Give the backbone structure.
Amino acid sequence: MKAGTTRTPAAALPPDAARFLIPGDRLHAHMQHVAQHHAAGPRSYAVLAVSLACASTPRLDYRPETDAFLVRYTLQLLRRVLRENDRVAVIGPDELIVVLADLPSPEHAELCAARLLAAFEEPLRIGAMYDHARATVGIANGTPGLRRPGDLIRQARTAGHQALTASRNYEVYPPGDDSSGRESLEPALRTAVAANEFHLVFQPQVDLATGVPVATEVLARWERDDGARVGPNVFIPLIERCGLMPRFTGWVLNNALRSHRRFVEAGLQVSMAINVSAVDLHERDFCELVEQALQTWSVPPADVTLEITETAPMHEPREVVPLLERLKDIGVGLSIDDFGTGYSSLSLLRQLPVDEIKIDQQFVNGLLESKQSLDIVRTTLALAGNFGLRTVAEGIEDQATLVALRDMGCEFGQGFGIARPADLETVVRWMQKHGSQPPATQPACR
Protein backbone atom coordinates (compact mmCIF):
# COMPACT_ATOMS: atom_id res chain seq x y z
CA MET A 1 0.00 0.00 0.00
CA LYS A 2 1.40 3.38 -0.93
CA ALA A 3 1.69 6.09 1.68
CA GLY A 4 0.01 8.53 -0.66
CA THR A 5 -3.29 6.63 -0.39
CA THR A 6 -3.53 7.02 3.38
CA ARG A 7 -4.64 9.70 5.80
CA THR A 8 -2.54 10.79 8.76
CA PRO A 9 -4.38 13.09 11.18
CA ALA A 10 -2.59 16.19 12.36
CA ALA A 11 -1.47 16.43 15.95
CA ALA A 12 -3.91 19.27 16.66
CA LEU A 13 -7.46 19.63 15.40
CA PRO A 14 -8.16 22.34 12.85
CA PRO A 15 -10.58 25.06 14.01
CA ASP A 16 -13.48 23.76 11.88
CA ALA A 17 -13.28 20.43 13.73
CA ALA A 18 -12.56 21.77 17.20
CA ARG A 19 -15.58 24.09 17.14
CA PHE A 20 -17.94 21.08 17.36
CA LEU A 21 -16.28 19.79 20.53
CA ILE A 22 -17.79 20.19 23.98
CA PRO A 23 -16.17 18.96 27.23
CA GLY A 24 -17.46 15.64 28.52
CA ASP A 25 -18.62 17.22 31.78
CA ARG A 26 -20.91 19.56 29.83
CA LEU A 27 -22.55 16.81 27.79
CA HIS A 28 -25.59 16.24 30.04
CA ALA A 29 -26.26 19.98 30.34
CA HIS A 30 -26.08 20.28 26.56
CA MET A 31 -28.47 17.34 26.18
CA GLN A 32 -30.94 19.05 28.52
CA HIS A 33 -30.78 22.21 26.43
CA VAL A 34 -31.32 20.28 23.18
CA ALA A 35 -34.31 18.40 24.63
CA GLN A 36 -35.95 21.65 25.78
CA HIS A 37 -35.34 23.23 22.39
CA HIS A 38 -37.13 20.34 20.63
CA ALA A 39 -39.93 19.90 23.17
CA ALA A 40 -42.61 21.65 21.13
CA GLY A 41 -41.16 21.71 17.63
CA PRO A 42 -41.70 19.35 14.68
CA ARG A 43 -38.01 18.55 14.22
CA SER A 44 -36.18 15.82 16.11
CA TYR A 45 -32.81 15.18 17.71
CA ALA A 46 -30.63 12.13 18.26
CA VAL A 47 -27.52 10.79 19.95
CA LEU A 48 -24.85 8.66 18.28
CA ALA A 49 -22.51 6.60 20.46
CA VAL A 50 -19.39 5.96 18.38
CA SER A 51 -16.90 3.25 19.45
CA LEU A 52 -13.55 3.09 17.68
CA ALA A 53 -10.99 0.39 16.94
CA CYS A 54 -8.37 -0.61 14.41
CA ALA A 55 -9.81 -3.08 11.94
CA SER A 56 -6.92 -5.55 11.87
CA THR A 57 -4.92 -4.78 15.02
CA PRO A 58 -5.86 -6.63 18.24
CA ARG A 59 -6.44 -4.28 21.15
CA LEU A 60 -3.68 -5.99 23.10
CA ASP A 61 -1.24 -4.76 20.45
CA TYR A 62 -2.32 -1.10 20.74
CA ARG A 63 0.34 1.41 21.58
CA PRO A 64 -0.63 3.94 24.29
CA GLU A 65 -1.24 6.68 21.74
CA THR A 66 -3.43 4.58 19.38
CA ASP A 67 -6.78 5.44 20.97
CA ALA A 68 -5.98 9.16 21.02
CA PHE A 69 -4.96 8.92 17.37
CA LEU A 70 -8.26 7.23 16.41
CA VAL A 71 -10.31 9.82 18.32
CA ARG A 72 -8.48 12.71 16.64
CA TYR A 73 -8.91 11.05 13.24
CA THR A 74 -12.65 10.55 13.81
CA LEU A 75 -13.12 14.16 14.89
CA GLN A 76 -11.59 15.24 11.60
CA LEU A 77 -13.92 12.93 9.67
CA LEU A 78 -16.91 14.35 11.51
CA ARG A 79 -16.28 17.69 9.82
CA ARG A 80 -17.88 16.15 6.72
CA VAL A 81 -20.96 15.05 8.63
CA LEU A 82 -21.83 17.54 11.37
CA ARG A 83 -23.89 20.68 10.87
CA GLU A 84 -23.80 24.02 12.64
CA ASN A 85 -25.83 22.99 15.72
CA ASP A 86 -24.38 19.49 16.15
CA ARG A 87 -21.88 18.74 18.90
CA VAL A 88 -19.51 15.94 19.89
CA ALA A 89 -17.96 14.97 23.22
CA VAL A 90 -15.15 12.50 23.93
CA ILE A 91 -16.28 10.39 26.90
CA GLY A 92 -13.68 7.63 26.91
CA PRO A 93 -10.39 6.57 25.37
CA ASP A 94 -12.16 5.07 22.36
CA GLU A 95 -15.71 6.47 22.52
CA LEU A 96 -17.42 9.65 21.34
CA ILE A 97 -20.97 10.91 21.80
CA VAL A 98 -22.44 12.92 18.92
CA VAL A 99 -25.54 15.05 19.56
CA LEU A 100 -27.52 15.83 16.40
CA ALA A 101 -30.00 18.71 16.60
CA ASP A 102 -32.74 20.03 14.30
CA LEU A 103 -33.16 16.82 12.27
CA PRO A 104 -35.98 16.82 9.69
CA SER A 105 -36.79 13.22 10.69
CA PRO A 106 -35.35 10.42 12.86
CA GLU A 107 -34.10 8.67 9.71
CA HIS A 108 -31.56 11.47 9.21
CA ALA A 109 -29.63 10.18 12.22
CA GLU A 110 -29.06 6.95 10.28
CA LEU A 111 -27.94 8.96 7.25
CA CYS A 112 -25.39 10.69 9.46
CA ALA A 113 -24.14 7.34 10.77
CA ALA A 114 -23.91 5.91 7.25
CA ARG A 115 -21.92 8.92 6.03
CA LEU A 116 -19.50 8.65 8.95
CA LEU A 117 -19.03 4.92 8.40
CA ALA A 118 -18.41 5.49 4.70
CA ALA A 119 -15.59 7.90 5.56
CA PHE A 120 -13.76 5.06 7.35
CA GLU A 121 -13.27 3.29 4.01
CA GLU A 122 -9.99 5.18 3.54
CA PRO A 123 -6.85 3.52 4.97
CA LEU A 124 -4.71 5.43 7.43
CA ARG A 125 -1.21 5.28 8.76
CA ILE A 126 -0.57 4.85 12.47
CA GLY A 127 3.13 5.32 13.07
CA ALA A 128 4.90 2.83 10.81
CA MET A 129 1.86 0.63 10.12
CA TYR A 130 -1.14 0.86 7.81
CA ASP A 131 -4.63 -0.04 8.95
CA HIS A 132 -8.28 0.91 8.69
CA ALA A 133 -10.12 2.59 11.50
CA ARG A 134 -13.39 0.84 12.33
CA ALA A 135 -16.39 2.45 13.98
CA THR A 136 -19.49 0.94 15.55
CA VAL A 137 -22.41 3.32 16.04
CA GLY A 138 -25.40 3.14 18.35
CA ILE A 139 -28.30 5.50 17.59
CA ALA A 140 -31.01 6.73 19.95
CA ASN A 141 -33.66 9.19 18.77
CA GLY A 142 -35.05 11.80 21.16
CA THR A 143 -38.75 12.00 21.95
CA PRO A 144 -40.70 15.07 23.12
CA GLY A 145 -41.73 13.44 26.40
CA LEU A 146 -38.27 12.28 27.45
CA ARG A 147 -37.88 13.44 31.05
CA ARG A 148 -34.20 12.67 31.44
CA PRO A 149 -32.41 13.40 28.17
CA GLY A 150 -29.28 11.81 29.61
CA ASP A 151 -31.05 8.47 29.21
CA LEU A 152 -30.63 8.91 25.48
CA ILE A 153 -26.89 8.46 25.92
CA ARG A 154 -27.46 5.17 27.74
CA GLN A 155 -29.82 4.01 25.00
CA ALA A 156 -27.33 4.93 22.25
CA ARG A 157 -24.53 3.05 24.03
CA THR A 158 -26.82 0.02 24.47
CA ALA A 159 -27.61 0.08 20.74
CA GLY A 160 -23.89 0.35 19.99
CA HIS A 161 -23.17 -2.71 22.09
CA GLN A 162 -25.92 -4.63 20.27
CA ALA A 163 -24.39 -3.62 16.93
CA LEU A 164 -20.98 -4.81 18.05
CA THR A 165 -22.19 -8.21 19.31
CA ALA A 166 -24.25 -8.74 16.14
CA SER A 167 -21.32 -7.69 13.85
CA ARG A 168 -23.31 -4.77 12.46
CA ASN A 169 -22.02 -1.31 11.60
CA TYR A 170 -24.77 0.43 13.53
CA GLU A 171 -27.96 -0.26 15.45
CA VAL A 172 -30.95 1.94 16.25
CA TYR A 173 -32.43 1.77 19.74
CA PRO A 174 -36.15 0.94 19.27
CA PRO A 175 -38.49 3.79 20.30
CA GLY A 176 -40.11 3.16 23.64
CA ASP A 177 -37.91 0.14 24.26
CA ASP A 178 -35.90 -0.54 27.40
CA SER A 179 -33.01 -2.97 27.66
CA SER A 180 -34.34 -4.44 30.91
CA GLY A 181 -37.65 -5.01 29.13
CA ARG A 182 -35.82 -6.85 26.38
CA GLU A 183 -34.11 -9.13 28.82
CA SER A 184 -37.44 -9.94 30.48
CA LEU A 185 -38.70 -11.09 27.07
CA GLU A 186 -36.10 -13.82 26.77
CA PRO A 187 -38.00 -16.64 28.58
CA ALA A 188 -41.18 -15.88 26.62
CA LEU A 189 -39.19 -15.70 23.40
CA ARG A 190 -37.58 -19.10 23.98
CA THR A 191 -41.01 -20.57 24.57
CA ALA A 192 -42.39 -18.87 21.45
CA VAL A 193 -39.60 -20.23 19.24
CA ALA A 194 -39.93 -23.74 20.70
CA ALA A 195 -43.73 -23.70 20.25
CA ASN A 196 -43.75 -21.93 16.84
CA GLU A 197 -45.91 -19.09 18.16
CA PHE A 198 -44.97 -16.70 15.38
CA HIS A 199 -46.97 -16.06 12.24
CA LEU A 200 -46.15 -14.75 8.78
CA VAL A 201 -47.50 -11.79 6.86
CA PHE A 202 -46.80 -10.93 3.23
CA GLN A 203 -46.14 -7.61 1.49
CA PRO A 204 -46.50 -7.46 -2.31
CA GLN A 205 -43.83 -6.09 -4.61
CA VAL A 206 -44.94 -4.69 -7.96
CA ASP A 207 -43.43 -3.85 -11.30
CA LEU A 208 -43.36 -0.04 -11.16
CA ALA A 209 -43.84 0.25 -14.92
CA THR A 210 -47.01 -1.88 -15.08
CA GLY A 211 -48.27 -2.13 -11.49
CA VAL A 212 -48.43 -5.92 -11.82
CA PRO A 213 -47.48 -7.85 -8.64
CA VAL A 214 -44.32 -9.88 -9.18
CA ALA A 215 -43.22 -10.95 -5.69
CA THR A 216 -44.06 -10.86 -2.02
CA GLU A 217 -41.77 -10.26 0.92
CA VAL A 218 -42.29 -12.66 3.83
CA LEU A 219 -42.28 -11.01 7.27
CA ALA A 220 -42.42 -12.66 10.70
CA ARG A 221 -44.71 -11.31 13.44
CA TRP A 222 -45.00 -12.19 17.13
CA GLU A 223 -48.15 -11.65 19.17
CA ARG A 224 -47.83 -12.91 22.72
CA ASP A 225 -50.49 -14.84 24.62
CA ASP A 226 -51.43 -11.67 26.51
CA GLY A 227 -52.15 -9.91 23.20
CA ALA A 228 -49.02 -7.74 23.28
CA ARG A 229 -47.26 -7.36 19.94
CA VAL A 230 -43.47 -7.40 19.87
CA GLY A 231 -41.84 -5.82 16.83
CA PRO A 232 -39.18 -7.55 14.71
CA ASN A 233 -36.70 -4.79 15.59
CA VAL A 234 -36.93 -6.13 19.16
CA PHE A 235 -37.32 -9.89 18.82
CA ILE A 236 -34.93 -10.53 15.89
CA PRO A 237 -31.81 -9.16 17.68
CA LEU A 238 -32.86 -11.04 20.82
CA ILE A 239 -33.26 -14.27 18.83
CA GLU A 240 -29.73 -13.75 17.48
CA ARG A 241 -28.28 -13.11 20.93
CA CYS A 242 -30.04 -16.15 22.41
CA GLY A 243 -28.63 -18.49 19.75
CA LEU A 244 -32.13 -19.33 18.45
CA MET A 245 -31.71 -18.06 14.90
CA PRO A 246 -31.09 -21.44 13.16
CA ARG A 247 -34.36 -22.88 14.49
CA PHE A 248 -36.29 -19.67 13.79
CA THR A 249 -34.93 -19.42 10.25
CA GLY A 250 -35.91 -23.02 9.58
CA TRP A 251 -39.45 -22.26 10.74
CA VAL A 252 -39.69 -19.14 8.53
CA LEU A 253 -38.30 -20.91 5.47
CA ASN A 254 -40.59 -23.90 5.70
CA ASN A 255 -43.74 -21.89 6.42
CA ALA A 256 -42.98 -19.39 3.69
CA LEU A 257 -42.41 -22.11 1.09
CA ARG A 258 -45.51 -23.97 2.24
CA SER A 259 -47.45 -20.74 1.57
CA HIS A 260 -46.05 -20.64 -1.97
CA ARG A 261 -48.45 -23.42 -2.93
CA ARG A 262 -51.42 -21.15 -2.19
CA PHE A 263 -50.19 -18.54 -4.68
CA VAL A 264 -49.76 -21.24 -7.32
CA GLU A 265 -53.27 -22.59 -6.65
CA ALA A 266 -54.62 -19.05 -7.12
CA GLY A 267 -52.98 -18.84 -10.54
CA LEU A 268 -50.36 -16.31 -9.42
CA GLN A 269 -46.78 -16.39 -10.65
CA VAL A 270 -44.86 -14.63 -7.85
CA SER A 271 -41.53 -15.14 -6.16
CA MET A 272 -41.01 -15.23 -2.40
CA ALA A 273 -38.53 -12.80 -0.83
CA ILE A 274 -37.29 -14.15 2.50
CA ASN A 275 -35.00 -12.28 4.90
CA VAL A 276 -31.80 -13.97 6.02
CA SER A 277 -29.89 -13.01 9.16
CA ALA A 278 -26.15 -12.44 9.17
CA VAL A 279 -26.06 -15.23 11.74
CA ASP A 280 -27.52 -17.65 9.17
CA LEU A 281 -24.63 -17.00 6.82
CA HIS A 282 -22.24 -18.44 9.38
CA GLU A 283 -24.18 -21.68 9.88
CA ARG A 284 -22.42 -24.58 8.18
CA ASP A 285 -25.65 -26.33 7.18
CA PHE A 286 -27.55 -23.25 6.01
CA CYS A 287 -27.38 -24.22 2.32
CA GLU A 288 -28.63 -27.69 3.17
CA LEU A 289 -31.50 -26.15 5.14
CA VAL A 290 -32.54 -24.07 2.12
CA GLU A 291 -32.22 -26.99 -0.29
CA GLN A 292 -34.20 -29.33 1.94
CA ALA A 293 -37.03 -26.81 2.39
CA LEU A 294 -37.27 -26.31 -1.39
CA GLN A 295 -37.51 -30.07 -1.93
CA THR A 296 -40.00 -30.60 0.91
CA TRP A 297 -42.50 -28.08 -0.51
CA SER A 298 -41.67 -28.65 -4.21
CA VAL A 299 -40.86 -24.98 -4.80
CA PRO A 300 -38.69 -24.11 -7.82
CA PRO A 301 -35.50 -22.39 -6.56
CA ALA A 302 -36.03 -19.59 -9.08
CA ASP A 303 -39.22 -18.64 -7.20
CA VAL A 304 -37.26 -17.77 -4.05
CA THR A 305 -35.08 -14.73 -3.34
CA LEU A 306 -33.07 -14.55 -0.12
CA GLU A 307 -32.60 -10.99 1.17
CA ILE A 308 -29.25 -10.42 2.86
CA THR A 309 -28.55 -7.28 4.86
CA GLU A 310 -25.88 -5.18 3.16
CA THR A 311 -23.41 -5.32 6.04
CA ALA A 312 -23.57 -9.12 6.43
CA PRO A 313 -20.84 -9.97 3.86
CA MET A 314 -18.57 -7.15 5.01
CA HIS A 315 -17.11 -8.68 8.16
CA GLU A 316 -16.18 -12.17 6.94
CA PRO A 317 -16.20 -11.99 3.12
CA ARG A 318 -13.90 -15.00 2.74
CA GLU A 319 -16.50 -17.11 4.52
CA VAL A 320 -19.70 -15.50 3.26
CA VAL A 321 -18.96 -15.17 -0.46
CA PRO A 322 -18.43 -18.94 -1.01
CA LEU A 323 -21.69 -19.63 0.84
CA LEU A 324 -23.54 -17.18 -1.42
CA GLU A 325 -22.03 -18.90 -4.43
CA ARG A 326 -23.35 -22.24 -3.15
CA LEU A 327 -26.81 -20.72 -2.78
CA LYS A 328 -26.58 -19.47 -6.37
CA ASP A 329 -25.69 -22.99 -7.47
CA ILE A 330 -28.90 -24.20 -5.80
CA GLY A 331 -30.75 -21.72 -8.01
CA VAL A 332 -32.25 -19.22 -5.55
CA GLY A 333 -32.03 -15.47 -6.14
CA LEU A 334 -29.96 -13.25 -3.86
CA SER A 335 -30.75 -9.67 -2.90
CA ILE A 336 -28.77 -7.08 -0.92
CA ASP A 337 -31.30 -5.66 1.55
CA ASP A 338 -31.13 -2.20 3.19
CA PHE A 339 -28.67 -1.08 0.53
CA GLY A 340 -27.00 2.23 1.33
CA THR A 341 -27.15 1.89 5.12
CA GLY A 342 -23.79 0.15 5.41
CA TYR A 343 -20.51 0.84 3.70
CA SER A 344 -20.08 -1.70 0.92
CA SER A 345 -16.95 -1.29 -1.14
CA LEU A 346 -17.33 -1.51 -4.89
CA SER A 347 -14.63 -4.20 -5.08
CA LEU A 348 -16.58 -6.45 -2.72
CA LEU A 349 -19.91 -5.71 -4.37
CA ARG A 350 -18.39 -6.91 -7.63
CA GLN A 351 -17.54 -10.23 -5.96
CA LEU A 352 -21.00 -10.89 -4.54
CA PRO A 353 -23.08 -13.26 -6.72
CA VAL A 354 -26.28 -11.26 -6.18
CA ASP A 355 -29.14 -10.51 -8.54
CA GLU A 356 -30.79 -7.53 -6.88
CA ILE A 357 -30.25 -4.38 -4.83
CA LYS A 358 -33.01 -3.31 -2.46
CA ILE A 359 -32.96 0.43 -1.72
CA ASP A 360 -33.57 1.06 1.97
CA GLN A 361 -36.77 2.90 2.90
CA GLN A 362 -34.89 5.64 4.76
CA PHE A 363 -33.81 6.96 1.35
CA VAL A 364 -37.19 6.40 -0.30
CA ASN A 365 -39.22 8.11 2.43
CA GLY A 366 -39.09 11.85 1.80
CA LEU A 367 -37.32 11.26 -1.50
CA LEU A 368 -39.03 14.26 -3.10
CA GLU A 369 -38.07 16.59 -0.23
CA SER A 370 -34.44 15.58 0.26
CA LYS A 371 -31.82 16.24 -2.40
CA GLN A 372 -29.41 14.01 -0.51
CA SER A 373 -31.83 11.05 -0.58
CA LEU A 374 -32.57 11.75 -4.23
CA ASP A 375 -28.85 11.71 -5.08
CA ILE A 376 -28.32 8.47 -3.13
CA VAL A 377 -31.18 6.75 -4.95
CA ARG A 378 -29.98 7.95 -8.36
CA THR A 379 -26.44 6.79 -7.61
CA THR A 380 -27.70 3.41 -6.41
CA LEU A 381 -29.80 2.92 -9.55
CA ALA A 382 -26.84 3.82 -11.75
CA LEU A 383 -24.62 1.44 -9.79
CA ALA A 384 -27.16 -1.37 -10.13
CA GLY A 385 -27.39 -0.73 -13.85
CA ASN A 386 -23.61 -0.93 -14.24
CA PHE A 387 -23.56 -4.26 -12.41
CA GLY A 388 -26.62 -5.63 -14.23
CA LEU A 389 -28.69 -5.92 -11.05
CA ARG A 390 -32.45 -5.58 -10.51
CA THR A 391 -33.59 -2.75 -8.25
CA VAL A 392 -36.36 -2.77 -5.65
CA ALA A 393 -37.37 0.31 -3.63
CA GLU A 394 -39.01 -0.27 -0.26
CA GLY A 395 -41.03 2.21 1.77
CA ILE A 396 -43.04 3.76 -1.10
CA GLU A 397 -45.72 5.80 0.65
CA ASP A 398 -47.45 7.68 -2.19
CA GLN A 399 -48.03 7.78 -5.93
CA ALA A 400 -45.70 10.74 -6.50
CA THR A 401 -42.75 8.82 -5.04
CA LEU A 402 -43.68 5.75 -7.11
CA VAL A 403 -43.73 7.80 -10.30
CA ALA A 404 -40.39 9.47 -9.46
CA LEU A 405 -38.73 6.12 -8.82
CA ARG A 406 -40.20 4.65 -12.00
CA ASP A 407 -39.00 7.63 -14.05
CA MET A 408 -35.49 7.24 -12.60
CA GLY A 409 -35.40 3.63 -13.78
CA CYS A 410 -36.22 1.70 -10.62
CA GLU A 411 -37.87 -1.54 -11.68
CA PHE A 412 -39.81 -2.80 -8.66
CA GLY A 413 -41.17 -1.44 -5.40
CA GLN A 414 -43.13 -2.06 -2.24
CA GLY A 415 -44.56 0.04 0.58
CA PHE A 416 -47.72 1.11 2.35
CA GLY A 417 -48.63 3.26 -0.67
CA ILE A 418 -48.88 0.07 -2.72
CA ALA A 419 -49.96 -2.60 -0.25
CA ARG A 420 -49.56 -3.12 3.47
CA PRO A 421 -48.31 -6.44 4.88
CA ALA A 422 -51.27 -8.77 5.42
CA ASP A 423 -52.17 -12.40 5.99
CA LEU A 424 -51.85 -14.91 3.17
CA GLU A 425 -55.46 -14.96 1.98
CA THR A 426 -55.74 -11.15 1.97
CA VAL A 427 -52.59 -10.82 -0.13
CA VAL A 428 -53.72 -13.55 -2.54
CA ARG A 429 -57.01 -11.70 -3.13
CA TRP A 430 -55.18 -8.38 -3.57
CA MET A 431 -52.82 -9.87 -6.13
CA GLN A 432 -55.68 -11.46 -8.05
CA LYS A 433 -57.48 -8.12 -8.12
CA HIS A 434 -54.51 -6.00 -9.16
CA GLY A 435 -52.68 -8.40 -11.41
CA SER A 436 -53.76 -6.76 -14.66
CA GLN A 437 -54.60 -3.17 -13.66
CA PRO A 438 -52.36 -0.25 -14.70
CA PRO A 439 -50.58 1.49 -11.83
CA ALA A 440 -52.56 4.74 -12.17
CA THR A 441 -55.77 2.98 -11.14
CA GLN A 442 -54.31 0.92 -8.31
CA PRO A 443 -55.59 1.89 -4.88
CA ALA A 444 -53.42 1.07 -1.88
CA CYS A 445 -54.29 -2.13 -0.07
CA ARG A 446 -55.15 -1.00 3.47
Q: What stands out?
A: The longest strand covers residues 44-54. The CA atoms of residues 21 and 378 lie 34 Å apart. The chain has two domains: 3-177, 181-441. Residues 3-177 form a domain with the Alpha-Beta Plaits fold (CATH 3.30.70.270).
